[in-house]
Amino acid sequence: MSAAPMKIYKLNATDGAARTGEVATPHGIIRTPAFMPVGTQATVKGMHPEAVRETGADVVLGNTYHLMLRPGAERVAALGGLHKFMNWPHVILTDSGGFQVMSLSAMRKIDENAVTFRSHIDGSTHVLTPERAIEIQTLLGSDIVMQLDECVRLPAERAEVEKAMRLSLRWAERCQRAFAPVRDGRSLFAIVQGGDDVALREESARELNAMDFPGYAIGGLAVGEPQEVMLRMLEVVAPLLPADKPRYLMGVGTPDDLLKAVARGIDMFDCVMPTRNGRHGLAFSRFGPINLKNARHADDPRPFDEESPCAAARTYSRAYLHHLTKTNEMLGAILLTTINIAYYQELMAGARAAIAAKAFASFADGVAAGWAAGDLPTR
């Protein structure tokens, strides 16, 4: 057993199961609940780092799989580390690459030692062991490092889910040993697996708790299962995780997913949804999702949302945003991505304030009512 990890989480307030707090890292504090914009290849697509920060983001996510292939972890390290490389002096969390190996690799073979896969870029063969996953993330210099795990798409046979869960537990131990020499305040998070099986989730959480990581993620959700299954798994797992450590739900999700997960005790989220949808003309807002490609916006002079704290939402007309998306202009993707990331950050800031005021349920109900009411009527 390794030495007890440094405590990085400060719980500030609770409201039911919902929590607000702070995660301490070498590059700053993450205010929770927190949404982490995804910067897969050392960039949040379509946004300057300064613009990402201006939305209220404390942390961005980088991806081990992509960065190990291009430009390479050793190269990033030689250039001063990922923070300097991407001009983001704030917190960076890197995922382990396990999900991308599952979803992108043309060929993958998993055994006890490693996952062997072919690059989706050029077909070259790579071997990713738990130790190498830690080495890559250490070279990148991320503040929060994730264990290598095996992620299974749902639905899946129980035997497949169980095998992946147990392998992930053994890899968690190996990652912990590999990370032990790192003494600069960075943290390694474990990942609870077990698919949609309650007993497997409970076992994974118990075993990982015994290993005493500084933070815990819940993986293997938002991979094909209905929302109610995901929420049920959160209701099982979150109470089993230490109350004095952060809880991170990986790869989730819609604004509705986030609020419902916060209500179940989750602290941290990441998802490509706001950036990906922004590039395709869909904006998230207090009115719900709005498709700017829709012809009803073509003659609408109103700003996207005159009450938004985001300047892009207040400044540009719906007609202009519609024009940009219909003509595939780069600026359209930039503006809608900015609007979306800003909305996700606004949602999390609202959740933090509501939890502190013991009013989270009414806050969430009010947000949902706004979504249900829909967009403002066209003049």
Description:
- This protein has helices spanning 49-54, 64-69, 73-78, 82-85, 98-104, 130-140, 158-179, 198-211, 227-237, 255-262, 273-278, 311-315, 318-326, 330-356, 360-373, and strands spanning 9-15, 18-25, 28-32, 34-37, 59-63, 91-95, 108-110, 115-118, 125-128, 144-146, 187-192, 215-218, 247-249, 268-271, 282-283, 290-291.
- It has an eight-stranded parallel beta sheet with strand order 4-14-13-12-11-10-6-5. A three-stranded antiparallel beta sheet has the order 1-2-3.
- It contains 15 helices and 16 strands.
- The relative contact order is 0.14.
- By secondary structure, it is of the alpha/beta class.
- A hairpin with a 6-residue loop joins strand 15 and strand 16 (290-291).
- The chain starts with 8 loop residues before the first strand and ends in a 6-residue tail after the last helix.
- The radius of gyration is 20 Å and the shape is globular.
Provide a count of the helices. Answer: 15
Ends distance: 66 Å
As laid out across the biggest beta sheet, the strand order is 4-14-13-12-11-10-6-5
Portion in helices: 40-55%
Query: How confident overall, as mean pLDDT?
Result: 95
Number of strands: 16
For this structure, the quaternary state is single chain
Q: What percent of residues are in strands?
A: 15-25%
Instruction: Outline the biggest β-sheet.
Output: 8 strands, parallel
The dominant shape is: globular
Radius of gyration: 20 Å
- Derived from helix and strand composition plus strand pairing, the structural class reads alpha/beta
Low-pLDDT stretches: none
